[in-house]
Request: fold
Amino acid sequence: MTDILIQELLDKVEARMAEAQKRLYEIHDKKIPQELTPWLRRTGWVQRFDNMDMKVLHDLLEPPKPKLESQNPGDKLHLVWDSVVRVIEKCWMGVRDVENRNWRLILYWLNSAEKDAQSQSPFKIHMEKKTRAAYGVYWQKFMIFVLRGLDHPEHGIEYTAAQRDVLTELMTELWKEEPLEKQIDKLVLQASVLFIQHDDFDKERSALLYYIGLIGYHIGWGRWRGPGEYTNILAALQWVIRIFILESAVPFEERDDWRTLHRDNPLIHFKLSHVYLSI
Reply:
């Protein structure tokens, strides 16, 4: 009888600890003073993630295990993780190609955050591979995030019809017996551009902005990141967004025959997409 009572007490303590641990990562919009800083008022994160379990959301960002290490043979998200690296490298080579073709005016617009004006300096074409890899991780996590949340509305991720269609096509390709890397890369870039070009006035809220808010929460610290730490993350994401938009607007494969394929010159064509870089 004593052993049973002790076990019951231990079970109750364990249940309370589990509940406390769960609530540790839940966001509650209680208007408490530490959540009313100008920074958090500006970001709106507390309201956006009200009642969400940040631990559950952050688990969606975990890198998928390679096929040999995965305990789930059906999990092929590692193919998307690897694809993002290839897509970023291709887009990066596209930036270098712009310089080689002496289309340097595009680099001034690519570096600009203004809708109607070029930057005073061109987009940098020299960057170490390890820096590109570090920047790319944020987009790798984003793609895994939106794919894992595709059939789980409880996570709060919203998709337009076009975004959902491309992600569904991507998942279909992954499930093929022999998925094609070229097709995966094409769909990853296509999906990425659709998320970047998400209109603020769409009924569905931007999944990219939702993700950007999520990574503003440091799960280890149990609090939101300050502007000093967070701006470095934004810089990485902006870099990826810029090279994706350039490749989407002025595809590498079309550049040799541009005058045959298009009425406008590459700069005019790129400036039509430049609005997405002013966010």
